[in-house]
Amino acid sequence: MTAWVATQAAARRTPAIAIKHSGSGAMVYVTGIDGVKNQGGGRDKRNWQLWVNGTYADAGVGAKVLQAGDKVLWKFAPPPPSGS
Q1: What are the residue boundaries of the Transcobalamin-like C-terminal domain, all occurrences included (predicted)?
Q2: In the chain, where are the structural domains located?
């Protein structure tokens, strides 16, 4: 299962979470969660980031394949430092 499939499943739980996105398949991109939208490019701009098991994801949400027991976390933050 991809992180996108897991995110969609979590969003359908009660209480539901509204996920906005663009694209599809491996190229899907989360643009907002519960009305909080990405701010765009720049070091001080906040955007939704995918983290898996405490590490910044090495692939986009539509391409990141999860293993059993993986923990997915979405952070609304400026870009992480290099090497995160």
Answers
A1: 19-76
A2: 3-77
Token pair for residue 63?
A: 């391409």
The three-state DSSP-derived secondary structure of 32-80 is EECCEECCCCCCCCCEEEEEECCEECCCCCCCCECCCCCCEEEEEECCC
Q: Is 2 helix (H, G, I), strand (E, B) or coil?
A: strand
- pTM, to two decimals: 0.89
Residue-wise pLDDT for 22-68, tens only, equals: 999 999 999 999 999 999 998 899 999 999 999 999 999 999 999 99
What amino acid occupies position 27? M
Q: Rounded to 5 degrees, what are φ and ψ at 62?
A: -80, -15
Count CB atoms within 10 A of the CB of residue 27: 11
**DSSP symbol at 26:** G
